[in-house]
Amino acid sequence: MTFVWLWTDFLLWVLFAISMVAVVKIRGNELLLQKWQKIFAQPLALSAFIVFAFYILIGLSDSIHFRLDNNTTTYSVLDRALLPALEAEEKTYSTPLNFEQFSKEYLDNGLRGRVHLNLVSADITNASDNTKNLLGLSTNALFYALAIFIAFILFLAKFTTINTKDNRPALATVFVLLFFCTWVVLLMPNYHILGTDKAGIDVFYKAVKSIRTGMVFGLLTTLLALPPAIILGLMAGYFKGKTDDVIQYIYTTINAIPGILLIAALVLILQVYMDEHASDYASALERSDLKLLLLCVILALTSWTGLCRLIRAETLKLSELEFVQAAKVFGVSNIKILFNHLMPNVMHLVLISIVLDFSGLVLIEAVLSYVGVGVDATTMSWGNMINAARLELSTDPVVWWPLASSFIFMFVLVLSANLFADRVRQVFDPKGDEDA
């Protein structure tokens, strides 16, 4: 087995490592620890975080790529976990949890006319047996999930100090996720859980694989946008004068250009360059991954201005306070004042901006892919699924499940991120609710 590291894989794991370091720092800071405990004390915020963490786990499992011996195909850990869905390809559309094709075809002998042919992965030939089989597998999944959940509760009671009575909504969320996972594991070998698309590819597999693309857009774009926003915002608010004028001119000019048009122009330039240098990429996977990373860079270049403006305004206020003036009197260098005295006092704005902007960036990916200037066509994303579903909505009968699947997966991610972000804003914002 040979590991294959893509640029986005490396950056996602670096971001995960930074997050773990931040957790250690928070545990060692009593004030920050109390704030985060206050965040997770709200049941809704804790449940949203659990769902969000589940998405992150899926994204990380899809960010470990490797090639098996004597095989040129590149897999991820998630691919191997979803191998039944990956390999069970059909001829054309099929509805969720069905045992036959969506459209009719002629049998080989042509004697019975056009009929709904059975799916390759299905061992059932009639609707009654299909219903019984689904009920049986769902019941088994419920029992397995209950067993794992009870073991999890006993572990919490014995080895931790967590009060299970005060965390019932969060535990209910854990149980729902456990049931969903066991249900998928049991049904996946014989069913296409969310049906198949026009090419016969499993829609559930595409929707789950799209999670990584959404996570890359939301997390990496935010990470890349932070340095210019923080540094330029601090410099503009602290130095004032001509420095402030130049920085204001830069971000005002960027804001004056319609965002989608600027992004589309940069993406089209990138697309032309990559098409002319196609031989520079070892594989289609590496080419699409590089385009995904460069698209994140383009979005970062156009999305740092809002946070920069907030930090500038906060720094203008902080720079007039006594502790900054005292540092100047004692001869502390400007660099140390910026990064040791001012930056820690604007980090609440940075944190709030990160959690609030994440969901917006996920939606931007869907919009860009929908209008044809998003990720590569070979990259699985919710935007590409929605774009492909445009023509399917005009068919008779309507092929609804690819669009519904992408919408549900994206809706759950964005909703959980927004609920958690709202709680973070309440706790960290000095002007937020005092009773948060």
In short:
With 436 residues, the chain is mostly helical.
Would you give an account of this structure?
By secondary structure, the protein is an all-alpha fold. The chain has a domain at 207-406: MetI-like fold. The protein is built from 17 helices and five strands. It has helices at 7-27, 30-40, 43-61, 77-81, 83-87, 127-159, 168-187, 203-239, 241-256, 259-276, 284-303, 305-318, 322-329, 334-342, 347-370, 382-388, 401-428, and strands spanning 2-4, 65-67, 74-76, 105-106, 114-115. The strands form two sheets. It has a three-stranded antiparallel beta sheet with strand order 1-2-3. It has a two-stranded antiparallel sheet with strand order 4-5. 31% of the residues are buried.
Tags for this entry?
single chain; 436 residues; mainly alpha; MetI-like fold; 68% helix
What is the strand and helix layout of this fold?
Layout: E1 2-4, H1 7-27, H2 30-40, H3 43-61, E2 65-67, E3 74-76, H4 77-81, H5 83-87, E4 105-106, E5 114-115, H6 127-159, H7 168-187, H8 203-239, H9 241-256, H10 259-276, H11 284-303, H12 305-318, H13 322-329, H14 334-342, H15 347-370, H16 382-388, H17 401-428
Antiparallel strand pairs: 1-2, 2-3, 4-5
Helix pairs in contact: 1-8, 2-17, 3-7, 3-8, 3-17, 6-7, 8-9, 8-11, 8-12, 8-15, 8-17, 10-11, 13-14, 15-16, 15-17, 16-17
